[in-house]
Amino acid sequence: MNGYLALVLHAHLPFVRHPEHEEFLEEDWLYEAITETYLPLLEVFERLAGDGVPFRLTLSLTPTLISMLRDPLLMSRYARRLDRLVELADQEVRRTLSFVTADHVDKILDAALNRRLFEAAREELEPADRLMVTPEENTVSQTVNIRQ
To answer: Which of 16, 37, 87, 100 has its CA at 20 to 30 Å from residue 51's CA atom?
Structure first.
């Protein structure tokens, strides 16, 4: 028997923009979602397309999320956050390397993996508008086929 698999992804976050504060905890939710979900998904889609793997999926983004991904203030804050995280990860790699023992190898690997995750996210933002979502005006949904 043949069947089909439908991948349907839905992305939503509450509106977390707070320009009245230099840093706001709720904005971290957006930054973590970008780093740990949205950019890795884009990377997988691009790798599949580059390898000629035909695939289709549905990805819905709520207007609230699109608004935040298009917001220059939030994106500049996200870029600053990535810079700080890369610096912190570098410090952690140096710290863990200072006491290399068999018991600490996992800590060194964790620190190095985190640094790579943050560096990759920062690279994905170059050019800076990498995540700037630009939906067509008055469009409820769009279908995008990623193919070679």
So the answer is: 37
